[in-house]
Amino acid sequence: MAVSVAERLSAVGTANALELRGVTRLFGALAALTDITLTVRPGERRAVLGSNGAGKTTLFNCITGDFPSTSGTIRFFGEDVTHFPPHERIRRGLRRTYQISALFTGLPVIDNVYLACRGVSRGRYSLLRPRRNDALMHAAENLVQAVHLTGVKEQLVAELSHGQQRQLEIALALAGAPRFILFDEPAAGLSPTERIELIEILTSLPPHIGYIVIEHDMDVALRVVESVTMMHNGRIFKEGRPEEIESDPEVQELYLGGGHG
Amino acid sequence: MNSFIGRHPIWSLIIVILIAILLFLIFAVWPPELEQLLGRKRIFLSALLNGITLGGLYFVVASGFTLIFGLMRNVNLAHGSLYLFGGYFGYEIANWTGSWVFALVATFVIVALLGMVLQFTIFRWMEGQDLRQTLVTIALSLILADLMLWRWGGDFYQVPMPTWLGGPVEIPLVTAMRSSGEYVYLQFPLVRLVILLGAVVIGVLMWLALNRTKVGMLVRAGVDDRDMLSATGVRVQLLFLLVFAFGAGLAGFTGVVGGTFQSLQQGEDIKILLASLVVVIVGGMGSITGAAVGAVLIGLADQFGTVYMPTYAVVLTFVIMVVVLALRPQGLLRGH
Amino acid sequence: MALVEATRGSPASAKSEDWSLTGIFQAHPVLWLLAVFLLVLPAFASNFVLIEIFGWAMILGMIALSLMFLAGYGGMVSLVQMTVAGCAGYMVAIFGTTVMTDISLGWPWWVGVPLAIVIAVIFGTLSGVLSVRTEGIYTIMITLAIASAFYYFTLQNYTIFNGFSGFNAVRTPIAFGVDWRSAVPFYYLILFWAVLAYLVVVYVSRSPFGLALQGIRDNARRMAALGFNVTAHRIAAYAFAALIAAVAGVLLVWHGGQISPGTAGVGPVIDILIIAVAGGLSRPIGAFIGAIIYVMLRTFALDALVAVGLDGKRFQLLIGLGFLLIVLFSPDGILGLWARWRARMQRPNTHGGRA
Prior knowledge:
Chain B is mainly alpha-helical.
């Protein structure tokens, strides 16, 4: 079904999932990102760490196209998406979650997920209501079940707890056939139990789906990834495996020594 | 500016050529063939100066409108009503005291106070509810319009002009050359010249206030990023009060001026509101410089349209607006 | 959008609506009563009540419905809907038969009316193109400016729009042996289209198109991050809303038998906004609630004002004050009041005692 299509797609060709070259993002005179060069392979799980203001979320915004980069190129599975609007990148298999849940608060949970499924398939302008046996409706219900929200699927998002909203946020990123996901601080505000659930969801994703996680919580981050990129002041200053980064003296001084969130 | 030229070389060349043509049209004596084509130079110059003057008027009104929107995200659709009310009020004061200048000052103060009351009693409680604030301004404009209609009816009113502002003044721009070789210079009403200069002075003062005073910097910061403003710990509500009062006062003040060299009538509130809307759409929301550029453009379009395309003068201004919206929706001067 | 935000917490929207149309009737049995009432009205009401009160209210309600669709579901407060209706009305006059024989083309209604609707929809869609690429707060300004541009253009153009006078004696067609402008047939014609528009809007609100629009209202950036082309959707919404307004515009010009620049002037444009907001932007029925109240006020305010000792001409003041009160105390309109009243009735301990 949808999964095997994505698997087939990412098996074909040896293109990197994500390739950034020389990406710079200026806000007026302020350089939020400077000369970012980054390569992520299909199925790779990476963490991007750094203190506040290091440019992590701006990096995500440039990758998804929420903000266009001032210069540089971005390739997604070999295709140059530098000038594509966000929806074109999403339709090619990129997904993203937001640090502060970006949900449709006026709609119930099931509609939120349905829209996510709809967004990456045809029939977005359909004026006909989905029938009982609608495939996308089923997909949406399955997804709701996968994030343990079946009990509240008819409730308005505004009435969910914070943890439930974060779960819904993840569900939206899993809709359709994602090839690569950007998780922006998925553990923010979660209780310890919820954090364990989150780690479980992330680690049990199908192996062909790669992701980048931005996190402040090193415990969560280092347990769900195989490589780490450290950012500071809009630049990448170190890359390596989790164990290497954890024990690196420079990282400790800059990041861990000052205390982190 | 250098970066602009660097990024848009073709547009820069076009602008330079247009400016050169314009300078020629203004300062040179027109050969007969040109006069055949475009009409008398005197008419052209009058339209030009009237357009800039009208632009000055629009600028002062629109800058109040754009400040209120830029800082408080409140699309004040009662702005035209404040203009008209100021005009009527100034008319009464001028007739009562015989002093035009006093009427100007008093009107500014009273309409500013009215603005302060509105901000304090109503808009303050709707912080963040942009649409709701705008709907309130619509309701207020309906109420004000009807009250003004009740009090002053549908007649034309003209604020009495002080004698020292009357009469024409000779401007050193050549309109024609007599057969004796002597130059004929343009005659232009003094009052309009004074208004034009007044608008420029107000514009410069506003620029200085916004860029050189602490309050001004807070306003500019707030226009760019409202959340940052509350983070600075400054008394945001007090700032809003001042800005709304100032914007309202400007509108009322301009009403008196407009009532002097044009006239006041029921329906003028809507016309001024629409002119302000078009000016800020064209120039860019929240930008005083944008309001200046937009106002001059619209003023010129209005006057040139009236002289050269009388049937469609008004439509010309809307056409400019549509073109700007189609090509550069954020306005001519606003960055993305 | 504050006015729609104000409705989110209300109990009426707490559960998602049933996916079928009959669901609304089950949830709100009063609609059954209303439907029956409207169907049998001609049996006991005078022609005046049929056409000048209910007919007129339903036409205005349709135009307000098109505004509600864009504002309530899409978060776009468009003031151009009345103008779209006016455009359709003008086109009907120009293509059909009127007293202005030098302009009107005299084409049969089954050519002129569809053509008029198409042109009005194109106009509405183009207005959407101009409005959707800026932040939501500008929509009201831009659409107001476009509406004014149309007004001034029709006022000053004599070759097509006949300027200040507009068109008179616009005849409603006689088709299939029926004079559609006689009271009872015209009433049912309006009723048919108004009910159809209402049902279509309710149905579409839960179709992928309608849901996407609501998603865009709630978080446009997220919709783009889900793969939706937000700008294209918004423009499509304008086109859909323009269709409703255009049909209403045809009925509008047939109702009055005339059309002039003032028909879609700034006054009527604002009136439609007031109707939509006063009724309530959260549900389609709000548009019609606002419309019937407005029409009642318009019809009886003169006598009411005089009875209180005020000049009957102070109608605008009344409207302005009423609108101000609504925006200040119940920004989600009559529907909001109704929802809050129902919530209070359903709460167990509401005997007015001290909390």
